[in-house]
Amino acid sequence: xxxxxxxxxxALNRRLTADRGYTFLELLIGVLILAIGxxxxxxxxxxSVRGNAFSHHMTQATYIAQDRLExxxxxxxxxxxxxxxxxxxxxxxxxxxxxxxxxTVTQEGNLKRIQYTVSWNDGKNHSLxxxxxxxx
Length: 136
Fold this sequence. Notes:
By secondary structure, the protein is of the alpha+beta class.
């Protein structure tokens, strides 16, 4: 069905029925809502990229710490690398970040506790620590 406006009537009635486009104000409000939505998505994207970078660095630090801790666990109990003191190792560069590993060995009777820490700075200081107990 088609709407046919009445032939008579005021100019206001004819004008209201003849306008079928959008006003400038409606377009401005629509663009504003779209811009706010896009800015929110941009903020989420930045947070996502930062989270992924941190997760990648945490994974690299975990690989380094686990590898070295397994190596130390498999050394003989009386090995010089397992004397009761703190050791700093060479820094490891992975994924463009310097990881600084160090470990501490404490002896309690016939048990040795090995605590291995990897630290790094990617704009903030972070560290990851693993610990194990080794028996004679």
